Structures
1.
Amino acid sequence: MKNEYLTIGQMAKLNNVSTQKLRLYDKRNILKPEFLDEKNGYRYYHIEQCDQLDLIYTMQICGMTLNQIKNQLNEYSPDKLRNSLINQETILKQKIEQLNRHLRTVKHLESNLNKMSSLPPDGQIVMEYLPERKIDTLKTDVDLFERSDYGYEIMMREFKSYMIKHNLPLSYFFNVGTIIKKSDFKNQNYHSKTVFIFVDNNYPKRVTQQILPENMYMTLYSDNPKDEIIYAKKLFQEIQQRDLIIAGDYICEVIFNPAIKTKNRVSLKYKIQVPVVNNI
């Protein structure tokens, strides 16, 4: 047998691939041995087929399926391959963006966990500077404080359904919070039908998005949702005593919600926050 012909084992070893992979390519009519020895029935690859094997490997690295590769090889043209690569580039960019969103979510959740060890005691009022933040909102049919048992969970489910319906990335579905309008909070009307998530510039543009401006916020942390109205009233009284002006909506942000029950209670940490300015 001439040196340019290779057995399947030699072809596999020379190209650092498995014989199983070569058999798969053969079975799928992607790369078949070129020469049949009629004396012994053995089939052999020609060494020049190594270049074709390199191309197949490169196409697979690019994320093409075996069917796509087969079509490219059977109906090869530079234009067709170029168009296929342009399409694959779009697909890979979308996957990279999706992975980047997932990575941002992991980092955010990790940051939330790190915060847990340095938060002030529950019920302690703290002044915090908070940078500008962007949120996407949804007005629900549920009033959080009228359904204090499962109101928050129902509002969350409505928001998740809204995201799925509008094909919004669910990697942003964490730290779901609720809002009391500034006018309601000032009049101590505790109603909340608006639920929100934090978003960034990579999130699809929606008319429901709002900006929470940078500001000093009077904040308070708690791990018991049933105490929220008590603490909301406590914040309001403190604002009055310090002669501060309420500068925006009341925000309740869930910091951590692992849904892990401890002693018949769900371990949850949230932060209520109200932007305030001095009364000059």
2.
Amino acid sequence: MIEFTPLYKHLQQTELADWATVLPSQLETVFNERFHGKMEQWRDLLASLPEISASENTFNADKIHIGSSLDCDQTTQQQLKKILEQFLPWRKGPYELFGLHIDTEWHSDWKWQRVQPHIAPLKNRLVLDIGCGNGYHMWRMLGEGARLVVGADPSQFFLSQFHIMKHYAGADLPIHLLPLKGEELPAFTREYRGKGFDTVFSMGVLYHRQSPITHLQALRYFLRPRGELILETLVIEGNEQQVLIPKDRYAKMRNVWFIPSPDLLTRMLERAGFVNIQVVDINQTTVEEQRVTDWMSYESLADFLDPDDANKTIEGYPAPKRAIVICNVP
């Protein structure tokens, strides 16, 4: 069910063919050395998915639609729902699979609405999504006509969720998720001069990196000359010298290291070698955009904020505010 051969085939049809020679050994290492304890259980669940043929797919709407409720009977639909519930929590979406609405924790469609108007058209582009989660935004990129979409996220749980959708949407579609960290991907450095992706997304990743400049430099090496980076990250208000480094947790997250002001973020991108830098959107995350649902019943944003002041986290820091920045490689 989880198969990377179609990815290698698609890569070999592009100027990214060198990746097809490097990735197999990397993926073998991941599954040998970082094999998740529940991966066999997830693979068994994937193998037990009921056979249903999707009569339609819609990837360019707010809700990813795969199939219709008319494609299967109610018994089969309930069998599918029980399997989907074994993959709780569903964090990024929304999805609708054969009439089953997966109401995810995040309204990831709202983020896409903020991003999409500002980016270069994705039609026929080679696209990389670093930190892609279960792949919701990847499907939106495919819906915009991308030639190939590759996502990277180390979570084998998200990999499994992604393959539920791909199983029904079509195994040969040019969309693939690698269970790798962004820094583990092969970079297009000097020996690959002129090669790279047309568009790279890094959304919700930078503040988790202990060395943010190193992350930005790595993103540059995934892009071809004049390629476009779409960066979305947490920011604080302030001038180009201001940054928040949490003492311990931020909104109950331990792995938040570096939250710059928009002006400092721009300076960082300049130092990393990017040009044409534009901050195109700044938006404070609301409890309507990130919340508890039947498909994600753990704590969510409302539990991470000061109960008396929604403009502060529970630790007293400024509440999550996110900037979207568009820029290019020279």
3.
Amino acid sequence: MKIFFIILFTIAVALQAADVSLDLSKQKLGQSPKGFTAKVAGVGKLGKAIVREGQIPALVGAGKVEDRLIEVTGGSTNANHYTLVMLDAMAPNDFSGSVRFRITGGKTMPVAGIAFRAQDENNYYLLAVKPKDTRLYWTVFENGKAVKGRRDNSILPAPGGWHDLQFSAKANTLTWTLNGRTQFITYDPEQVPDFRKGRFALWVRSDTRAEFALLELLNPAETLAKQHGKVLRSMAREDARVLSLQLVARPAPNQAPKIIGSLVAAEVGRPAHADCAKAIDQNKVFHGRKSNEAFVTSPLRDKNGIIIGAVRVRLRSPSGTDKRRDIARAAALTQRIKGNYPDAKSLFQ
């Protein structure tokens, strides 16, 4: 149990916002993205990257999302040319992330993807797509040469040419989902250059032109907070009366409870309301009211009935509503949340 409290403590006190460079809304259109540096490997001159506006197909439905993106163009027609647009900030050692991208040009070798755990422009891991051959590569580059890797020769179609790549790296386990198909590998550090930390980059080969959008890169604490938030959002969508929802736990046995999940990401890591400690310690449900809103704080139990945290919900509740109705609604919500956390381990990992 001690290790889980250590993990939770890390979440509570060390949660960081995603790198500000990834927020392209603050970047100037038509210029190189700030917080990134273009680098070249192999043959030819340096390619370029600019910030543009574009439309990206929505993941759900037939609509499109208007957003800013980074357009990367390789600097040579030589097949042994690689342009890497590298994030200046060091990526977390273990991380998860996602990006949407598509290839819009290139005559020689249209291939694009992401480089990660990069030591420099010549040493890194690569996930890249070659749409012409419906192929995805995981490749290890060492001293500018591809030395190890594997490939998927039948990747799923990308709507409008936009590939959806979700990825994670934890120690020597690499996981990715491309266009809905999940794959993972565990490499042997004795057989593969073992890069456990490094930088992140957008990558194109030869004279490829590609657009990269909706890039997200999260450390383990941010990843866990996002997972909790996803659970809470799915619960809140089932009840129109829910105004806010928080998942709460103690960073350590004798410390005050912290918010570890919320519908509002900025709340994660903050001290929880005083009723949360009472709910955990006294095994009681607490009800409060302000105008036409009710606040209900309930203990959260694991599958064995052991209290592992608390759930605090703010509800629309017209004045005069019997508080038993609020408590019953909160109890049903807490029960559904409980199904996602069968034990303490599931809360902390």
4.
Amino acid sequence: MSSGVYSALSGSVAKMQELEIAVNNLANVGNTGFKASRVSFQSLFSDAVQNNEAQGTNFAKTSGRFVDFSQGDVQRTGRSLDLSINGPGFFKVAGEDGFQYTRQGNFKLDQQGNLLTAVGELQVVGEEGPVSFPHQNVDINHQGQVLVEGMQIGQLNLYTAENNDDFQEKGSGLWVLREGATEQAASGEIVQGCLEQSNVNAMLLTTEVIEIKRAYASFLKTMKTYSDMGEKARQIGELG
């Protein structure tokens, strides 16, 4: 069988993986603080690696999936418990299986005044433990100081890690630190009365999805062409 079939097949598989990630990004375009995922590609050429891994056949493959942590647009809401992060950092929350991190700052208070996430109702925590407010009419400055009539009554902290790759996506806007990674203080600023939007560009991504589908269809057409050529070659061989 021609090596071109394998090249087209690898291309179609890679495009299908890219399409799955792109569709997931589109599905989360309206989610506060969502960070888009990307896929990187690797082509194997006629060198030692290509000869060993591909046995002499040129093909493409995805070399990995990575998260785009770039800042999303900020929308003004005026709500005191809506908090966005300008720059690097995450809010820290307590989950059933340990600490988690999020940039979704659309918080709420329970009856005890505990600051909770809107999704999952996870407790927001800081250096001194759970964060709680006497009421929602508080002021929060860029450094995370919680103020009532000018008096500091609490502190919100932002956390990060040595590298963005230290964070593993858990879903629902939550992240966990990979094994062996440790948290550290982040340099971002907290902005009250605002929410960070998804960093997905819906219009651009829709165009990308169309292009991915066209490329995928092209690979399928190429594979069919090779299949038809192979069938004709077999028929000629039978006649001979």
